[in-house]
Structures are given as structure tokens and as C-alpha cells.
Design goal:
The chain is of the alpha/beta class and about 350 residues long. The chain folds into two domains: about 140 residues, Rossmann fold, CATH 3.40.50.150; about 180 residues, 3-Layer(aba) Sandwich (Rossmann fold). The chain has ten helices and 18 strands. It has a seven-stranded mixed β-sheet, with helices on both faces. A seven-stranded mixed β-sheet has the order 12-11-10-13-16-18-17. Helix 3 packs parallel to helix 4 and helix 5 packs parallel to helix 7. It starts with a helix and ends with a strand. Keywords: Cytoplasm, Methyltransferase, rRNA processing, S-adenosyl-L-methionine, Transferase. This is rRNA methyltransferase. GO terms for molecular function: N-methyltransferase activity; nucleic acid binding; S-adenosylmethionine-dependent methyltransferase activity.
Length: about 350
């Protein structure tokens, strides 16, 4: 897909919008020819784009905040259906007259189905072109055509309180948005026996909608909690949960804790991701471990949970003086790491 995306981006002007999720990250490198603007729900992608002088916006795929007209949108489809439907719905409303939405993806991305749905939304016939192993769906806006029915995007823009999350707020756009992760639930069960005496500062690395932060705050209400995530939807949900529950702390954007000061935390809690878009990214665990070690104060401890196939003990040995397996169950391993 990178070759096709690169070709489409090189043929761009200032009115082109590149909607970039994590699947686009590999293209942000020296030599990229792109003359438009970038919008992403990933903080690291926006930060990387700005390093190359590309105007970039960080939001939860909110096209309505752009401060210029858009005549062409290039979008490698995301892994989550609700996000793709949301972009298709909004693009049809935000493009200027005779504008074009180009969806691209591999055969396993759902691109053929999305091409059909986009055509219906734009009130035009399907125009799907094959480029090697990838596909591009071209959808032109016609002022004389009537837009089709909105696609079901699970009310993408709406934060909602969910019984399945014990009354916490969440929304589509973040992984596992409507359920409590089994591994996170196991990790939280170990908090009471390993947390230091309050007051202390805790860092929730990859906070998601803030489940681990909430569990920690219930046990240690005087703790100051820093929650950080790379995903815009996660930050919106987590901040809402902090506000509604009166949790002391802050919610900040960053790549695996990159914006958190060194040696600033007494405790780190983390359920690190191991998927990057449609791919499994092997070094994600390493990055989260490295940031945990960097942000911990002397004598601090980290509590991690990972899938049992992740060799966390081996990865953590070079960074921590003590690596202790606390539990192995239900396909997950819980570790205590001492700095």
C-alpha cells in the first residue's frame, strides 16, 4: 500500500488532505513529496509530519476543524469500521464542489466493501481500481447528485457512559472501546498489594479510556495520576473519566510516554499494545519498557501485563534490577518491575 499511497500523495496540492492513521506512519520519512495538509488521530504521526514541515492537525478524525477548503482527500482505510464510516460520512459533507475522496487499502482491509458504501454515500457508481495487490476507490462529489444515507458509524463522535465499563465513558476510535480488557482487569487486581503509601505519582502508559487509572485512583485517591496515550479518541474518553470522577492528575498526548519528564513517577502501570494498525509490531513492548524505566524515579516500580507470548521478562532484564512474574493466567502475564 505504501507505493500506491506515495504515488497519490506526490500528486497533491495545498487543497489535498491526507487522513493518516498508524498504517501511514512508514511514509513519513525524508524524500516524501506531499504538498497538502495531514490530519491524524495519532500524536506520533502528527509530530513526525511537523518535523518534515507538513502542516498537520491532531484530532479524532474531526474534519470540521480544518481551516481551509479541501478538494481532495486521500485516506488509507483504518482497521476500525466505525472510523472508516465516520470519515466517509464527513468527507461527503466537507469536500468542496467536485471534490474527491480516495480510499485505499489491501485486499484484507475491507476496501471492496468500503468502496461500495462510499459510492452509495456519494450518490455515484462504484469506481474501484486495482494497483498491484492494492486497491483505490475514487469517489467524486457531484453537486447535482443527492447524497446517500449516512453509514452506521456507531455514533462515532459521541462519548457515552457504558454499563460494560462499570459506568465509565468511552467511544469508538480506540481499541477495545466498549469492554474491559481481560489483561487490564488482571493487572488491576494486583494494585492493592504493590502500591506505595500515598501520596505518590503514578503514570498510566497507553491509558486508553482510563480504566487502570480509575482503578488506581479508587485505591489511592490522594495519588497524582498522569495518563498518556497516542490516540485522540482515548485522550478524549480518559479526560472525561478524570473529570467526572474528580481524579487528581492530568491527561496528555504522547508516543509511549514521550512527553512525560524523566524520573517523574513513583509507579508506572501499563498494558502495552502489540498491534500497529493491521500489523503486529514487535518493538512496541520494548518502547513502553524503555519509557517506563526512563520516567520512573529511583526505587520506583512498574506493573505490566502482556500477552503470554510476549517475552517481557527477557526484554525487561536490561532495564530493571528486578523482574518478578506475579501471575500467569487466561493468556496473560502480570509482572512487577523494580528500577
Amino acid at each position: 500500500m505504501s507505493t500506491l499511497l506515495s504515488q497519490l500523495l506526490s500528486d497533491s496540492d495545498q487543497d489535498t488532505l491526507w487522513i493518516a492513521d498508524e498504517n501511514s506512519k512508514a511514509l513519513l520519512k525524508a524524500g516524501l513529496q506531499f504538498h497538502g495538509i495531514l490530519l491524524s488521530n495519532r500524536w506520533d504521526i502528527v509530530h513526525a509530519a511537523e518535523q518534515f514541515g507538513i502542516p498537520a492537525h491532531f484530532s479524532d478524525f474531526d474534519l470540521t476543524t480544518l481551516d481551509r477548503s479541501i478538494s481532495r482527500i486521500v485516506y488509507p482505510v483504518s482497521k476500525e469500521k466505525a472510523a472508516v464510516h465516520h470519515v466517509i460520512n464527513t468527507a461527503a459533507e466537507c469536500l468542496q464542489g467536485n471534490g474527491e475522496l480516495i480510499l485505499i487499502g489491501g485486499k484484507n482491509s475491507g476496501i471492496k466493501t468500503y468502496a461500495q458504501k462510499a459510492a452509495q454515500r456519494f450518490g455515484r457508481g462504484k469506481n474501484l481500481q486495482k494497483h498491484g495487490t492494492d486497491y483505490a476507490s475514487h469517489n467524486h462529489l457531484n453537486s447535482s447528485a443527492t447524497l446517500g444515507t449516512l453509514l452506521d458509524d456507531s455514533n462515532y463522535r459521541t462519548l457515552r457512559k457504558l454499563d460494560s465499563l462499570n459506568g465509565l465513558f468511552s467511544k469508538p476510535g480506540l481499541f477495545g472501546w466498549n469492554k474491559i480488557d481481560v489483561g487490564s482487569a488482571q493487572l488491576a487486581q494486583h494494585f492493592s498489594e504493590h502500591l506505595p503509601k500515598t501520596p505518590f505519582t503514578a503514570l498510566d502508559l497507553g491509558c486508553g479510556f482510563g480504566y487502570l487509572s480509575v482503578q488506581l485512583a479508587q485505591l489511592a485517591p490522594e495519588a497524582h495520576i498522569i495518563a498518556t496515550d497516542n490516540n485522540a479518541a482515548a485522550l478524549l474518553a480518559c479526560q472525561n473519566n478524570f473529570d467526572s470522577l474528580g481524579i487528581k492528575g492530568e491527561v496528555i498526548a504522547g508516543d509511549a510516554g514521550s512527553q512525560v519528564a524523566s524520573a517523574s513517577s513513583d509507579v508506572v502501570i501499563c498494558n502495552p499494545p502489540f498491534h500497529q494498525g493491521f500489523q503486529v509490531e514487535g518493538d512496541l513492548t520494548d518502547r513502553f519498557l524503555t519509557e517506563a524505566a526512563r520516567t520512573l524515579s529511583a526505587g520506583g516500580l512498574a506493573l505490566f501485563v502482556v500477552n503470554e507470548f510476549i517475552p517481557l521478562a527477557r526484554k525487561a532484564e536490561r532495564l530493571f534490577r528486578e523482574v518478578t512474574l506475579l501471575e500467569k493466567a487466561k493468556g496473560f502475564c502480570v509482572f512487577r518491575l523494580a528500577k
